[in-house]
From TrEMBL, chains A, B:
The lineage of its organism: Bacteria, Bacillati, Bacillota, Bacilli, Bacillales. GO terms for molecular function: aspartate kinase activity; ATP binding. Pathway: Amino-acid biosynthesis; L-threonine biosynthesis; L-threonine from L-aspartate: step 1/5; Amino-acid biosynthesis; L-methionine biosynthesis via de novo pathway; L-homoserine from L-aspartate: step 1/3; Amino-acid biosynthesis; L-lysine biosynthesis via DAP pathway; (S)-tetrahydrodipicolinate from L-aspartate: step 1/4. Its EC number is 2.7.2.4. NCBIfam families: asp_kinases, PRK06635.1-2, PRK06635.1-4. Residues 333-391 form the ACT domain. It catalyses: L-aspartate + ATP = 4-phospho-L-aspartate + ADP. This is Aspartokinase. It comes from Nosocomiicoccus massiliensis. Keywords: Amino-acid biosynthesis, ATP-binding, Diaminopimelate biosynthesis, Kinase, Lysine biosynthesis, Nucleotide-binding, Transferase.
Amino acid sequence: MERLVMKFGGSSLKDLEKIKSASDIILEKSKTEEVVVVVSAMGDSTNELLDMAHALSTTPSKRELDMLVSTGENKSAALLAIHLNEAGHKAVALTGFQAGFQSDGVHGKNKITDVNIERIENHLRQNEIVVVTGFQGINPLGDITTFGRGGSDTSAVALAVKLNAKCAIYTDVSGIYSIDPRIYSDAKKLNVVTYEELMEMAHLGTKVIEPRSVELAYKFNVPMEILLNDGKTKGTKVLEAYDMEDTKLTSVSKLDDVVLVIIHDTKDVNISNIFLELAKENVNVDIISHTRLNDRKEVTFTSEKSSIEDTKRVLTELNLDYEIKDNLSKVSIVGTAMRSQVGIAAQVFELFVKEDIFFYEISTSEISISYVVDSKIADDVVIKLGKHFEL
Amino acid sequence: MERLVMKFGGSSLKDLEKIKSASDIILEKSKTEEVVVVVSAMGDSTNELLDMAHALSTTPSKRELDMLVSTGENKSAALLAIHLNEAGHKAVALTGFQAGFQSDGVHGKNKITDVNIERIENHLRQNEIVVVTGFQGINPLGDITTFGRGGSDTSAVALAVKLNAKCAIYTDVSGIYSIDPRIYSDAKKLNVVTYEELMEMAHLGTKVIEPRSVELAYKFNVPMEILLNDGKTKGTKVLEAYDMEDTKLTSVSKLDDVVLVIIHDTKDVNISNIFLELAKENVNVDIISHTRLNDRKEVTFTSEKSSIEDTKRVLTELNLDYEIKDNLSKVSIVGTAMRSQVGIAAQVFELFVKEDIFFYEISTSEISISYVVDSKIADDVVIKLGKHFEL
């Protein structure tokens, strides 16, 4: 039998009815494959736990936050295994540490170092469906850790790598769209997408999947599919490359809660030191630009709204003269087509001039171009790009 | 510094405000003692989790039930540690397995085999308050186990034994009463009680504390106190023995949900076999009586309502002719005084005849007498006994 890792997110397990539907899809697959299931916490329960912690403390201790939120996946995994057993297929629920997820790093943002799959293999040999808590592991001290936002996707792909399995990500959308259908209702669902494109799209705001997980799948060439949690609708398959002739643009993504930090007059400052200190505080720095006017130097970078407090503290400690602009969004167009088609950037510039769209920053990669714009016009920019490139 | 294990039950942690109050009491104690805290799940959350499991399955797999309900204590321990840290005292939350609780037995009814306190000792050396999840441990397979009803009390006492600490049990009543004040409003609070009496009272229906935990405290002579969760009211201290002259009766307890099982005509049946089979199904058998009339034999025993289904299955498989009577309660009077005072049973018989009280079974121990009566008259019997013995 082939092996399949099935990942169900919070919205696909949000109540007991959803757990029963997930159970049906799993039982169907288990007829033809050896199945390991990775689960997130039910619905919005992780945020509810975080709200309780923040009601008790302005800066809750991160070690205990990990212990707290890990209860969410333990609960959904146990309930799903209970229902699978009831429905007639032997199933066993494993926590992160029982499933062998070893990790290291900062609490709340741990990285998986290895997965010791011995116990999972034992259960599979006994013809059991193994339900594993996503998002969590254990560190060398024996403490419970979590893998940061969307960590369950990464758990699923890491397991697929170690178990030599395919990976199916079940969500509440029917696959990957060229543009978020909530912004642009004419958006097309993609039957296939490449790992590289999906990685860019995920980094650039497509919330269906966590970019780290796509990167891992790409690195180990894990066959991957993103599907609706109804067990019927055809999803989006992730491929290594398209057929040679197929070279169109793939998608437009939007990422909200972007902030722009401008540091004035940095002539006496060691710039690498700024980014080193920001990295120590786990501030994600995205687009960096550096301008020199006469003998003045100015550095700007974009970051996430959630890092504003950490950013301010670092810059203040470094005695820098800075300002922060928020309510920004990053709109990106993605597609391997950019490699072979010249002039995409030029077409966008032309469009922006014609439509009088103002952007703060621009950033390009081999297969994407991103523009930082005011959040209030971001949806409109997405729609205009979608129409222009017929996505 | 002396060491203190403080146990907070579900009602003492039922919401964020209660967690803050518990935190205040703990911080006050931590000024003069090394403190380890044992917590139950918040409020009624264990039952809510069990309800979800039963909505998904008529007989939820017991291993997964343990994993499910253990999330309750993980949540309360993490939240309490988060608040202690916020309030300025370093604190760390440990799950059952991190705190070294080793266990063995049947899922849902595990027994503690040992507590490896190395990690707790490390945290105490670093002047941290250690918050430990009660009720749960790990078995030799690495699975999460729970210790059955009231298991958090047993966790607390077991830790006190290993840490050579005193043990304070915080509850929502202000100590141990001679009679449940909800039944008999004139009941007196006891300043002291002996381990033996408290053990009998707990077995016989006093719900404030779990009998296993008192047994353990008695065996290892752990100084123990039962207190109100307000941090002010004087509680009830548990002693090895009273002063010589102090020989009154201590309490009247009531235990509801008792069932009486009557097995007719057992002349061809190996009776020990019946109880062996019941024990295999973890049916708790309490009062057993055996009557022989001519060549007919009849066996009766009392058990718990929750075991009715298991009991029926065993007796039916053994082809026995039986009937079950439910809606019964067991009313018990307890006191080491019984050892030295004769005629307590005689006084009760006289009272029951005078008041026309019918009982189904009677059972005596060295320091208690129990009567099985219809539940609908049980409270009235408790009050009459309380008045008669001036409790």
